[in-house]
Amino acid sequence: MFKMSSNKQLIGVRLRDEDRKLLKEIAKRYDISESDVIRIAIRKFAKDMGIEVG
């Protein structure tokens, strides 16, 4: 049975072609999803900026 509601939000990100290729290459190299690459990058950026990552 399908779950009709979710607490995850769908967010669109506009990327240049070279950024999209880089995203796909990283995901392929580490065998993770493109959304995981973005999630990891956001968390690393926040940590580097001194923002508490929950």
From TrEMBL:
State any single GO MF term: DNA binding
Taxonomic superkingdom: Archaea
Name the keywords, alphabetized.
Answer: DNA-binding
From the UniProt record, give one GO term of the biological process aspect: regulation of DNA-templated transcription
What name does the UniProt record give this protein?
CopG DNA-binding domain protein
